[in-house]
Design brief:
The protein is of the alpha/beta class and about 725 residues long. The protein has 23 helices and 22 strands. The strands form five sheets. A seven-stranded parallel β-sheet has the order 12-13-11-14-15-10-16, with helices on both faces. The protein binds adenosine-5'-diphosphate and magnesium ion. Magnesium ion binds next to helix 10. Pfam families: DEAD (PF00270), Helicase_C (PF00271), RecG_dom3_C (PF19833), RecG_wedge (PF17191).
């Protein structure tokens, strides 16, 4: 039976072992546990476990309910049961793939009868399941060619006579394991790690726990590993989810509080002398959403506190106008504004459209990219430094050393999900606490943006300009792609234009990509559309050439533009009404949505052809989702479900830690509670200096790392 230390609560009257925090446990290597030598250490490292803290927070993926231990003679078809028995023999089952059977069957005997137990995968177990070895197996009892168990788990019982310790009890944890470390060993090690850890101190304030009916951290961790009751296990999980979200939110709250306190930005009091003529000169009326969001942005800019605002709006919702309004306000107030885009093509396009929109106004717009010639660059840098440049458009070249602004008071980051948090920060540091507007078309469900960008205010353009038609989207089998190109030809005969996107090989646009792109262009120009003008755009081209091709496409001189993903973000040619995406199964969902967004801007009903043969369920679901939905927010939720949420946080963009237990779509209500409590706590103690908040502060530092380093500077 489980030893008393694994009961929740720690019995009253016992002497509590010394208290420790999870942070303390991070500096204790797993090697200190008995039974962990170099081999096990390496296997654990493979699972991302290096310290006792990692060990105790390596949570089980599920629990085996051993309340249903049966004798073989008692088994009934359809039930889930656990049996103890000895191995009689084993044999491979299923059709071998590359000489290896996909599973095996072990014949077990327990004194009351025999039963075959089938296991899929995990063939390495065969080395251990020798005749006479005692095992415990559990799974569903099925009737196929006689009765058998299809096992979810099968383990060797190494010491049948001895104390089963952590392996007994009603609920037995089942951990994510790998080849080098097996189920029972993992369970034993976690048992030992919990014992070695002693009493784990709770960094969360007691009153918060009481208000939300949460148990303390120590009990929750123990309960999650070795539960005593199903209800308690659920409560413990909730406690850990709350814990995780609370720490992140407290970190964000502290960061926000600090910025608000220490940063005084310029107050942008625009007089409308540039903004009004710009807005009046637009060839369209603003949507109500655009009007509202411009108002929100300008209100923020009027304040002394620097603006930190995230502007979300689906592809094609018209974010650029908002950016220009902000830039003009900065210029009116006597400062400089800069907008940074993730690709040269997009920077180039912003430059063209912004200079065109402002051509009648006394505003000097300058572009800075990495591929400019030395002379051009020198002139641009000079104007940026002297203040001669009022609005600066560029790529990440803007944040390089040697780019000095005279008085940068507004930074706009377009397609911000393509930049890292660090880049955003460097950009801001080019000015003195400038206002910041970050824009994204990768729609993020609200719950997620609260977590990812909890320190930003959020504006939302939730309305598309009038007259936008849904993009008719079809998945096309590669064998039928010529049919898709026939439909494209019809569009072009009506006077419209089309994009053809090359299959994605690598983000970096390696040479092979370029060659593949060139081949695709050849095929289209020579075989499919010999009568049309077919252009090519890829990331390896010189800036001048890219500019030339885009200009020709915009002017209608190129009818079909073959491109790599360089057109993914923000490129805007309203006359383009069809897009063919070759190798569509290889793109991510949000990437496909962005690509498709290239053709939703005109007045003609647009078409999108996804050429691809999905090879996995996930890629099939992605393509299906695109056929079914136009709405980027809906698509991003689907994407979250397909990819799993972890990936969003693991990415360098987010600057956020991985979520281990929380699932944002599922745990919205916990997130909202945790956020409210965290912000309230930080409001009362903005630097978390109070002695009783110290453990919390240390945990946040561990979790958010460099992002909150300042919290520890004096
Ligand atoms: P995104 O939000 O994807 O960056 P853009 O700002 O590039 O979108 O705008 C997409 C297209 O819609 C552009 O051609 C732009 O001129 C046009 N547009 C923006 N706002 C409106 C509006 N209110 N009415 C009509 N067209 C608009
Ligand atoms: Mg845009």
């Amino acid at each position: 039976m489980a030893s008393p230390t694994f009961r929740a609560g720690g019995a009253l009257g016992t002497v509590l072992p010394p208290r420790t925090t999870l942070t303390d446990l991070r500096s204790r290597p797993v090697g200190e546990l008995p039974g962990v030598g170099p081999r096990i250490e390496a296997a654990l490292a493979d699972l991302g476990i290096a310290s006792l803290a990692d060990m105790v927070s390596h949570y089980p993926s599920r629990h085996e309910d051993l309340s249903n231990v049966k004798r073989i003679s008692e088994l009934r078809v359809g039930e889930r049961a656990t049996i103890f028995g000895t191995v009689v023999s084993t044999r491979p089952v299923g059709k071998p793939v590359r000489g290896r059977a996909p599973g095996f069957t072990a014949q077990l005997y327990d004194g009351t009868g025999y039963i075959p137990v089938t296991v899929w995968g995990r063939s390495w177990l065969l080395n251990q399941l020798l005749p006479e070895v005692r095992v415990v197996a559990s799974g569903e009892v099925q009737s196929r060619y006689g009765i058998q168990i299809v096992a979810k788990s099968i383990e060797v019982v190494d010491d049948p006579a001895g104390d089963e310790g952590p392996h007994a009890g009603r609920f037995v944890p089942v951990y994510p394991v790998n080849k080098g470390i097996q189920a029972r060993r993992m369970r034993t090690l976690i048992h030992r790690a919990l014992e070695a850890a002693g009493r784990i101190l709770d960094p969360l304030p007691a009153d918060v726990l009481v208000r939300h009916g949460l148990s303390n951290l120590h009990d929750a961790i123990h309960e999650v590993h070795f539960p005593t009751q199903r209800a308690r296990l659920r409560a413990a999980m909730r406690r850990l989810i709350f814990h995780e979200l609370f720490l992140i939110q407290a970190g964000l709250a502290a960061r926000k509080a600090r910025l608000e306190k220490t940063e005084v930005g310029g107050r942008h009091r625009g007089d409308g002398s540039l903004l009004n003529p710009f807005l009046n000169g637009l060839p369209f009326g603003l949507t109500r959403a655009q009007e509202r969001v411009i108002e929100e942005v300008l209100d923020d800019m009027r304040l002394e506190k620097p603006m930190r605002r995230l502007l979300q709006g689906d592809v094609g919702s018209g974010k650029t106008v908002v950016a220009i309004a902000a830039l003009l306000t900065a210029v009116e107030a006597g400062g400089q504004g800069a907008i940074m885009a993730p690709t040269e093509v997009l920077a180039e396009q912003h430059y063209l459209s912004i200079s065109a929109a402002l051509s009648d106004l006394p505003v000097n717009v300058v572009i800075l990219t990495g591929s400019q010639g030395a002379a051009e660059r020198r002139t641009a840098l000079g104007q940026i430094a002297s203040g001669g440049a009022n609005v600066v458009v560029g790529t990440h070249a803007l944040i390089q050393k040697g780019v000095d602004f005279d008085d940068l008071s507004l930074v706009v980051v377009d397609e911000q999900h393509r930049f890292g948090v660090g880049q955003r920060t460097v950009f801001r540091e080019k000015g003195t606490t400038p206002d910041t507007l970050v824009m994204t078309a990768t729609p993020i469900p609200r719950t997620l943006s609260l977590t990812l960008y909890g320190d930003l205010e959020v504006s939302l353009i939730d309305e598309l300009p009038p007259g936008r038609k849904p993009v008719e989207t079809k998945t096309v089998d590669p064998a039928e792609r010529l049919g898709a190109y026939e439909e494209v030809r019809k569009e072009i005969e009506e006077g419209r234009q089309a994009y053809v996107i090359c299959p994605l090989v690598e983000e970096s646009e390696a040479l092979e990509d370029v060659r593949a792109a060139e081949e695709l262009r050849e095929e289209l120009a020579n075989e499919i559309f010999p009568e049309l003008r077919v252009g090519l755009l890829h990331g390896r081209m010189k800036a001048r050439d890219k500019r030339g091709v885009m200009a020709q496409f915009r002017a209608g001189e190129i009818e079909v533009l073959v491109a790599t993903v360089v057109v993914e973000v923000g490129v805007d040619v309203p006359n383009a009404s069809a897009i063919v995406i070759e190798g569509a199964e290889r793109f991510g969902l949000s990437q496909l949505h962005q690509l498709r967004g290239r053709v939703c801007r005109g007045l003609h009903p647009p078409k999108c052809f996804l050429v691809g043969a999905p090879k996995t369920d996930d890629s099939e679901r992605r393509l299906q989702a695109l056929e079914d939905y136009q709405d980027g927010f809906k698509l991003s939720e689907v994407d979250l479900v397909i990819r799993g949420e972890g990936t969003l946080f693991g990415s360098r963009q987010s600057g956020m830690p991985d979520l281990k237990v929380a699932k944002l779509l599922r745990d919205v209500d916990v997130l909202v509670e945790a956020r409210r409590e965290a912000f309230a706590l930080v409001a009362g103690d903005p630097t978390l200096k109070r002695p009783d908040h110290r453990p919390l502060r240390r945990e946040i530092r561990e979790l958010l790392g460099a992002d909150v380093e300042w919290l520890f500077r004096e």
